[in-house]
Design goal:
It contains six helices and 15 strands. The chain is α/β, with parallel strands linked by helices.
Length: 271
């Protein structure tokens, strides 16, 4: 298995808090340790650097506690960046902040016509885009994704509100293999996944409930929550090298390693 060097965008959780509830993981009455969240995030960032990846950072904005979840800031493929439109007003102001960063970085910009929560619901798997819908990104957004990026889009219907973004229910391991939680998808989407990925790794509910599928793979190394021990064992059995990180504080807002990480794909060669 060959690792692919990646360029990643992250946002330090300087203003992380759980002051509202827009998914089942969030409980505003539970205490949150922002300093611990920052330390855990720094461990994730250092893990990427140790693996040889490039990490760029967007400046966090006061009053936007979920901006740490950079995966929702856009979709970047082949040097094109599609900005986002959030479902919830609490996150709306993240969209222009990320759009400005992409524009300043020189990406070819496209604006969304519908609710579209970026790489949280849009995952490049080989020559296909897997696009989630059901809770956040609108199904109508999938047609625009196909027009902008020129990849066939496969709609994935999510059915469990705990796994409200596609990247909480499925992770792309390499161009041919994914891991996913079958129960998070509709029967039709499960059938499509079986057809597309007959050798997929199936996660257990226990590992999905610690956001074990919210993982980042470079084709050889898989960075995932340390608590997802069964999934890590399955991945090692397949020949992947797993690296567990503790993001338990950020999980209080429903985020894991992938939520904190947006891949910046410059061109076709870096796919």
């Amino acid at each position: 298995m060959d690792a692919t060097s990646q360029r990643l965008l992250m946002c330090r959780p300087t203003y992380f808090a759980v002051g509202y509830a827009i998914n089942p993981w969030m409980d505003p009455s539970a205490p949150v340790n922002t300093a611990l969240a920052v330390r855990q995030w720094e461990q994730l960032r250092q893990t990427y650097l140790d693996l040889g990846h490039t990490v760029e950072e967007i400046t966090p904005v006061p009053g936007l506690p979920d901006m740490v979840f950079a995966a929702n800031g856009g979709t970047v493929i082949d040097g094109k960046a599609m900005a986002v439109q959030f479902r919830d007003p609490q996150r709306a102001d993240e969209a222009p902040a990320y759009r400005a960063w992409f524009e300043a970085a020189g990406f070819e910009m496209y604006d969304p016509k519908h609710v579209n929560e970026g790489e949280g619901d849009v995952l490049l798997a080989g020559d296909h885009l897997l696009a989630g819908t059901g809770f956040r990104t609108a199904h109508a957004a999938h047609a625009q994704l196909q027009e902008v990026f020129g990849y066939p889009v496969i709609t994935m219907q999510l059915v469990d509100p705990r796994f409200y973004h596609l990247d909480t229910a499925l992770t792309v391991l390499d161009e041919r293999t994914v891991a996913y939680l079958p129960e998070a998808f509709s029967p039709g989407s499960q059938a499509v996944l079986r057809r597309l990925f007959p050798d997929a790794v199936h996660a257990t509910m226990a590992d999905a409930e610690v956001l074990g599928l919210n993982a980042v793979s470079d084709g050889r190394h898989v960075v995932l929550p340390a608590q997802a021990t069964d999934l890590a064992a399955k991945l090692r059995d397949r020949g992947y090298e797993t690296i567990g990180v503790d993001l338990s504080e950020l999980r209080k807002a429903g985020g894991g390693p992938k939520c904190c990480t947006l891949r910046l794909r410059q061109g076709k060669a870096s796919k």
